[in-house]
C-alpha cells in the first residue's frame, strides 16, 4: 500500500529535518520574533507592514505586484503602510473603530488590500467577501455580522440591499457610479486624498478579534468564523517553514481574499516574512497564469487542486510555451490533491506539489507536506511541528495507524478560531470531545505518521459493509484519460446500504458511450478495488462547485435524491 514516494528535491529545503523540528519546536520561541514581545502593543497589520518599513529597512521593497489585463503596478512596503494609514484615518473620521465590523466586497485590487489593512489598524474587524456573491449572500453575511460599513465598487453596489441592513451606515465607493453617489455613499478616492498618510495604530491585545470570515459552504450554510491577532504567530512560522519563504522570494497565492487562504497566506504569511507578493486580478486562464509566473519570476506558488486540474486539462503544450524554471516550491490547499496531479506537476514543472490541509476554522496550516520530507502522493502530509493532530473515535480515543476516524487537533494552537459569530452552539460542537477540535473530516494515519484524507465525515460511503472515502475513488477516476473531474457520493440502496455513484465531467474530445463507461468502471476496479468502483456514472458538463473551486457533494446528493439543495450562496454560476 502507498509505495509511491517522491523524495526531496535538491536545493529546495533550507530547513531542519521534520523530526528535528518537531523535537525542538516551541511556539514561545516564535513569539520572540514580534515587536509586541517587548512592547506589549499588538496589531497584526503593524507587524506585517509598518514594521518592515520602520524597523527592518524594507520601505522601498516591493510588497505587492498587482496585475490585471488593464493595470500593472508595483507597490512598496512604504506605500502599503501609507495607504493603509490613510484608510485608517478615513474610518476614524467617520467614527468607525475598535470591534466594529467593516466589510470589503470588491474584485482584487490594491485598494482592497489597503482598505483591509486600514480596517485592522483601527482595531475593527474586517469581513472580506468574494466579489461574485449575489445579493442574498451579501445580505446574510452583513446582517449576521451587523456590519457598519462596507468598501465596494459601483458595479457591485446593486447587490448590497441597504434597505434590509439597518446597521450599515457607510458605503465607501471605489469609483464613482453613473448618476453620482447615493445616500450613505462616500467617495473612497476623495476621502483617501484628504487623509493623512500617518496614523496612530490602535494597539490591542493578542486576543482581540480582527477578522470575520465565512466558510466556503461546501457542507451547508456558511459559518462566520472569528479570528484574532494572535494568529500571526502561526502565519509567520508556517510561511517560513511550509511555504519555505526566503527574503528575496516572489510569492504568488492565487486565492481570493474572500477565502481564508487569500488572507492567512495571501496577506499575513508573505508580509510577516517580508517577501514580495503577486496578486493577479481577472479571470482564470491557463496561459495568463503561466505568463504571470514567468513575467514576475515567481519562486513560490500556492494554489488549489481545482486550478491544477484545470491547468492539467488544458494540456502540456501550453506549459511548454513558457519558461517556468523560476518556480522553486509549489503548494496546494482546499481539497484533496489527486496523485495524478502531483505526477503531472513533476512532469511539467519538474517540481513537487506540496499538499496541505487546514480549514477556515483553523486559521492556518495544520497538516502539510513539509518541504524537506518525502511526499507520498495522495497524503496531506504530517502535522506541523508544535501541533498535535490525530485520528480519534467518537469518544476521543486516538486510533492506531490505518484506522479511519475523525481527524482532530489538540486545542489550542495560535491561529485557532475564537468564536462562530453569534452561534455558540455551533462553536461548541467542534469541541464536544474534551481537549480536541473535531474537524468534521475523516482520515487515517499510516505507520509513518502520514495523514490520508478520506472525505467529509458525512460523505464517507458505506457500501456492503465497507467504508469507502469518496476521495480515493475520485482520484482514481481522474487518472483515467477521459475524466477531467469527478465527484462521488453514496446513493441509498436497499441491498448494499449505499452504492457508489460518480458524477464526472469528460475531457475535451471524449464521447460518452457504454463502452467508455464500462472501461472507466473497470479502470477503478483494477486500480483500486471492486467494491470501490462506481455502480453508476453520470456525465455532466460541469460539476457543482463552490466559488473557491470545491466540488459540492451535498448538491450532487440532493440532485440524486430529489431533495432541496440547501444554501447555494457560494456556488459558482
Ligand atoms: P463549509 O465548512 O462551509 O462546509 P468548507 O469546509 O469547504 O465549507 P473551508 O474552511 O474553506 O470550508 O474548507 C475546509 C475544508 O476543505 C476541510 O475541512 C477539508 O474538507 C477541505 N480541505 C482543505 N484542504 C484539504 C486537503 N489538503 N485535502 C483534503 N481536504 C482538504
Ligand atoms: Mg468546513
Automatic annotation (TrEMBL):
InterPro entries: AMP-bd_C, AMP-bd_C_sf, AMP-binding_CS, AMP-dep_synth/lig_dom, ANL_N_sf
Species the sequence originates in: Heliobacterium modesticaldum (strain ATCC 51547 / Ice1)
Domain AMP-dependent synthetase/ligase: 59-420
SUPFAM superfamilies, sorted: Acetyl-CoA synthetase-like
NCBIfam families: PRK04319.1
UniProt key word ATP-binding: yes
Domain AMP-binding enzyme C-terminal residue range list: 472-550
UniProt keyword list: Acetylation, ATP-binding, Ligase, Nucleotide-binding
UniProt EC number: 6.2.1.1
Protein name in the entry: acetate--CoA ligase
Annotated TM spans: none
Keyword Cytoplasm: no
Source species, domain of life: Bacteria
Top-level class of the enzyme under EC nomenclature: ligase
Sample GO molecular function, one term: ATP binding
GO biological process terms held by the UniProt record: acetyl-CoA biosynthetic process
Family: Belongs to the ATP-dependent AMP-binding enzyme family.
GO cellular component: cytosol
Amino acid at each position: 500500500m502507498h509505495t509511491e514516494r517522491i523524495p526531496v528535491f535538491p536545493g529546495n529545503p533550507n530547513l531542519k529535518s521534520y523530526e528535528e523540528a518537531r523535537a525542538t519546536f516551541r511556539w514561545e520561541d516564535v513569539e520572540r520574533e514580534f515587536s509586541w514581545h517587548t512592547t506589549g502593543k499588538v496589531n497584526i497589520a503593524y507587524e506585517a507592514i509598518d514594521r518592515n518599513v520602520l524597523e527592518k529597512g524594507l520601505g522601498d521593497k516591493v510588497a505587492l505586484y498587482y496585475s490585471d489585463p488593464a493595470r500593472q503596478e508595483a507597490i512598496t512596503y512604504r506605500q502599503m503602510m501609507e495607504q493603509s494609514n490613510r484608510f485608517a484615518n478615513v474610518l476614524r473620521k467617520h467614527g468607525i473603530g475598535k470591534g466594529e465590523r467593516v466589510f470589503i466586497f470588491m474584485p482584487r485590487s490594491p485598494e482592497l488590500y489597503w482598505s483591509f489593512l486600514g480596517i485592522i489598524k483601527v482595531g475593527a474587524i474586517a469581513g472580506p467577501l468574494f466579489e461574485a456573491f449575489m445579493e442574498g449572500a451579501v445580505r446574510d453575511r452583513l446582517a449576521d455580522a451587523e456590519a457598519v460599513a462596507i468598501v465596494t465598487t459601483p458595479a457591485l453596489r446593486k447587490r448590497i440591499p441597504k434597505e434590509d441592513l439597518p446597521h450599515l451606515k457607510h458605503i465607501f465607493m471605489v469609483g464613482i457610479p453613473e448618476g453620482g453617489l447615493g445616500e450613505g455613499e462616500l467617495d473612497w478616492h476623495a476621502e483617501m486624498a484628504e487623509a493623512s498618510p500617518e496614523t496612530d495604530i490602535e494597539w490591542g491585545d493578542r486576543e482581540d478579534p480582527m477578522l470575520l470570515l465565512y466558510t466556503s459552504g461546501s457542507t451547508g450554510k456558511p459559518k462566520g468564523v472569528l479570528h484574532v491577532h494572535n494568529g500571526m504567530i502561526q502565519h509567520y512560522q508556517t510561511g517560513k517553514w511550509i511555504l519555505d519563504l526566503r527574503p528575496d522570494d516572489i510569492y504568488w497565492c492565487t486565492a481570493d481574499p474572500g477565502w481564508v487562504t487569500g488572507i492567512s497566506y495571501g496577506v499575513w504569511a508573505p508580509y510577516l516574512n517580508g517577501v514580495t507578493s503577486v496578486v493577479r486580478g481577472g479571470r482564470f486562464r491557463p496561459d495568463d497564469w503561466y505568463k504571470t509566473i514567468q513575467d514576475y519570476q515567481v519562486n513560490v506558488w500556492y494554489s488549489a487542486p481545482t486550478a491544477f486540474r484545470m491547468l492539467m486539462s488544458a494540456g502540456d503544450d501550453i506549459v511548454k510555451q513558457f519558461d517556468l524554471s523560476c518556480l522553486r516550491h509549489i503548494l496546494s490547499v482546499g481539497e484533496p490533491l489527486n496523485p495524478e496531479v502531483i505526477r503531472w506537476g513533476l512532469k511539467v514543472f519538474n517540481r513537487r506539489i506540496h499538499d496541505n490541509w487546514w480549514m477556515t476554522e483553523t486559521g492556518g496550516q495544520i497538516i502539510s507536506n513539509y518541504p524537506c520530507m518525502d511526499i507520498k502522493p495522495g497524503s496531506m502530509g504530517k502535522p506541523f511541528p508544535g501541533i498535535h493532530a490525530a485520528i480519534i473515535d467518537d469518544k476521543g480515543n486516538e486510533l492506531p495507524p490505518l484506522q479511519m476516524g475523525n481527524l482532530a487537533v489538540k486545542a489550542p494552537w495560535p491561529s485557532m478560531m475564537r468564536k462562530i459569530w453569534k452561534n455558540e452552539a455551533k462553536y461548541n460542537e467542534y469541541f464536544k470531545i474534551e481537549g480536541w477540535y473535531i474537524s468534521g473530516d475523516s482520515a487515517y494515519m499510516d505507520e509513518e505518521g502520514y495523514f490520508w484524507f478520506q472525505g467529509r465525515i458525512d460523505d464517507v460511503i458505506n457500501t456492503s459493509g465497507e467504508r469507502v472515502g469518496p476521495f480515493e475513488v475520485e482520484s482514481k477516476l481522474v487518472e483515467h484519460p477521459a475524466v477531467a473531474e469527478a465527484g462521488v457520493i453514496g446513493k441509498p440502496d436497499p441491498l448494499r446500504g449505499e452504492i457508489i455513484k460518480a458524477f464526472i465531467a469528460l475531457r475535451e474530445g471524449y464521447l460518452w458511450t457504454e463502452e467508455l463507461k464500462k472501461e472507466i468502471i473497470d479502470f477503478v476496479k483494477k486500480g483500486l478495488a471492486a467494491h470501490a468502483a462506481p455502480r453508476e456514472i453520470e456525465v455532466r458538463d460541469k460539476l457543482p462547485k463552490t466559488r473557491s473551486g470545491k466540488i459540492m457533494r451535498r448538491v450532487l446528493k440532493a440532485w440524486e435524491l430529489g431533495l432541496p439543495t440547501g444554501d447555494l450562496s457560494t456556488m459558482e454560476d
